[in-house]
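In response to the reviewer comment on reproducibility (Comment 2.3), we provide here a single inverse folding case reported in full, input and output, so that an independent group could reproduce the run without further information from us. The structure tokens appear first.
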């Protein structure tokens, strides 16, 4: 599961309309993220930010494999401190991909990264 997928699921989770009364409980149950994530390995091009790392910890994901953390150091220590195994591949292809994206979309990058 990638961060794009997590964001997609989160968006879907928040977009479900809640009908009135007796349908409410069932509909609210359907808003819950699906099942357990303890066996999930999360792959990401870039080191997760604190927001995404919070989701990792909150949903019990135990292993995160990232392409690189040079572009953005993210929240590795936060995840490690919460028992998550974090593997940083320091992959040149991921570094190149992120540098290309930042060069082409600086406003989007700065918005996403909170600057
Ligand atoms: Zn994030």
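Designed residues, in position order:
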């Amino acid at each position: 599961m990638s961060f794009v997928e997590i964001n997609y699921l989160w968006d879907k989770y928040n977009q479900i309309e809640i009908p009135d009364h007796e349908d409410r409980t069932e509909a609210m149950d359907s808003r819950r993220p699906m099942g357990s994530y303890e066996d999930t390995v999360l792959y990401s091009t870039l080191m997760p930010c604190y927001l995404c790392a919070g989701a990792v910890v909150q949903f019990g994901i135990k292993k995160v494999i990232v392409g690189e953390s040079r572009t953005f150091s993210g929240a590795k220590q936060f995840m490690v401190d919460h028992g998550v195994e974090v593997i940083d591949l320091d992959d040149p292809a991921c570094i190149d991909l992120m540098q290309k994206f930042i060069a082409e979309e600086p406003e989007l990058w700065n918005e996403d990264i909170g600057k």
